[in-house]
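Please fill in the sequence for the structure shown.

STRUCTURE ENCODING:
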């Protein structure tokens, strides 16, 4: 580390450091956890700022009547280090005390977590559930993260050069940084201009409805203005106040998380005046967390990976048997699909034409493991899960739904299946790092050309593409087109290679692993942030 290496504070609503540390929901948190691990491994001066969630994200199970049951539990952790520091944030006219915990035991750079679950607070449940409840509580949580996060850094006496807002949840930190400068004698616009030199912003959401907005009145009621003027707040984020637009206007530079997402984001936000430039830095994964070292080394030597992969496959099959009572065939092609049950990800697309898929499932030529989790209020996502459960009922020996998707199950599947299926509607997936975790373990990707895959896909060499990047006029048109392409590629290319050309399959596995290690590690990603954004 050079002496002039910028010291970074990395703000994020969630961090996925370990499956049992329940402060993550999905890909955003896993990315943030991998980022902190890369910072530690490369000796980079990064400080994470997040929230100590009492109940974390939802635990989701299917009961014996095939109903989706959402559960929340209070978690205690003996590895949290008490810093002895508390900071205060005014929320809804009341002072909210925030305790600051430190976590550095997962091979990560230091992470500080704010916690409102204190006896002296009447609002102790603000940090209760990640992405839980409704608008007021979401704003309160974001005030704790942003305003409280900056105040925690001051109390910790951290010398910070760059404030990195990983998604729009953190933008209230920008208000606090401006307020500090105004307190030192600068006028509001001068403070804003100067703060921009120290702020960078990452956007992850290529769906316009997914970019959070709030009315100025509710922000005022919540005390989110942080002492700033209403008209000034509107200049930053508009009215209603858009958190992503605010991030773009508060920062000196912004980034999307894949080349394709960069094009989508620039088109989506082209009308936001006075915004920062949006460049592309493709996400990466922490190889030490997600990769099988034996497979990586064998791929480097271009050795046979089939037997090594079979060990991971048998281990996964045993886990599925213990959890579900279904014994999958190790010699059959097993397809994996595990992620959030967001509708655009189309978790049930492979079942869209039962006439096509049914013979493959009945013969066990194809077996499918699916693990999804829907937000408690995402009723469309829950309908997708119910559809998959109905398919599982018809083909119980070939379709397995695994409860409660989490980091541990994600790691098991991305090592054990043969093919990783990813079929988002094109332009809707920002990156899709689960496919990277599969690729580094020799699991071949079968994906639409979205997110990271257009950069990594060398068709029939590192995996397979579904379609040609087609974007339909309607969702239905796109789903029909992609469904046909999925079946065509699966039947004529994937199955043909798996059952009739093991040498080619092995060559593809080797190519996939080596391309992944070289180009899609979190090490490469964090160095790009330092080279292209922080400096």
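FILLED IN BY: designer on duty
SEQUENCE:
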């Amino acid at each position: 580390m050079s002496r002039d290496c910028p010291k970074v504070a990395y703000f994020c609503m969630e961090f996925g450091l370990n499956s049992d540390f329940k402060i993550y929901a999905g890909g955003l948190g896993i990315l943030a956890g991998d980022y902190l691990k890369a910072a530690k491994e490369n000796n980079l001066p990064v400080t994470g700022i997040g929230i100590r969630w009492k109940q974390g994200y939802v635990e989701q199970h299917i009961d014996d009547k095939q109903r989706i049951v959402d559960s929340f539990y209070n978690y205690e952790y003996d590895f949290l280090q008490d810093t002895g520091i508390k900071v205060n944030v005014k929320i809804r006219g009341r002072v909210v005390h925030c305790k600051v915990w430190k976590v550095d035991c997962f091979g990560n750079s230091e992470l500080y977590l704010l916690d409102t679950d204190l006896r002296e607070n009447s609002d102790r449940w603000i940090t209760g559930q990640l992405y839980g409840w409704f608008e007021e509580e979401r704003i309160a949580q974001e005030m704790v993260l942003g305003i409280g996060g900056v105040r925690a850094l001051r109390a910790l006496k951290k010398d910070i050069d760059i404030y990195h807002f990983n998604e729009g949840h953190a933008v209230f930190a920008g208000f606090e940084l401006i307020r500090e400068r105004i307190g030192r004698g600068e006028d509001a616009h001068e403070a804003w201009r100067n703060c921009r030199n120290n702020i960078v912003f990452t956007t992850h959401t290529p769906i316009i409805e997914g970019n959070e907005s709030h009315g100025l009145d509710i922000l005022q009621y919540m005390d989110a203005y942080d002492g700033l003027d209403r008209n000034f707040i509107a200049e930053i984020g508009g009215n209603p106040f858009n958190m992503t637009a605010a991030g773009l206007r508060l920062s000196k530079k912004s980034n999307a998380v894949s080349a394709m997402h960069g094009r989508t984001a620039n088109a989506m936000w082209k009308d936001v005046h006075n915004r920062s430039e949006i460049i592309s830095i493709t996400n990466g994964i922490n190889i030490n967390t997600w990769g099988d070292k034996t497979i990586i080394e064998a791929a480097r030597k271009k050795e046979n990976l089939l037997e090594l992969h079979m060990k991971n496959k048998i281990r996964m099959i045993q886990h599925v048997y213990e959890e579900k009572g279904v014994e999958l065939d190790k010699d059959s092609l097993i397809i994996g699909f595990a992620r959030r049950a967001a509708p655009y990800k189309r978790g049930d697309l492979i079942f869209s034409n039962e006439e096509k898929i049914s013979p493959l499932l009945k013969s066990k030529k194809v077996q499918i493991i699916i693990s999804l989790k829907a937000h408690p209020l995402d009723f469309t996502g829950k309908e997708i899960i119910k559809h998959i459960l109905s398919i599982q009922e018809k083909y119980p020996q070939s379709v397995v739904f695994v409860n409660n998707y989490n980091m541990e199950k994600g790691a098991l599947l991305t090592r054990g299946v043969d093919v990783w299926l990813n079929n988002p509607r094109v332009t809707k997936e920002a990156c899709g790092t689960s496919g990277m975790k599969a690729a580094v373990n020799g699991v071949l990707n079968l994906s639409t050309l979205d997110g990271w895959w257009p950069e990594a896909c060398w068709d029939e060499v590192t995996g397979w593409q579904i379609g040609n990047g087609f974007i339909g006029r309607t969702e239905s048109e796109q789903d029909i087109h992609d469904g046909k392409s999925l079946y065509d590629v699966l039947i004529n290319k994937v199955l043909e290679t798996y059952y009739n050309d093991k040498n080619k399959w092995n060559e593809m596995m080797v190519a996939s692993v080596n391309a992944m290690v070289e180009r899609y590690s979190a090490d490469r990603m964090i160095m790009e942030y330092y080279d292209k954004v922080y400096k």
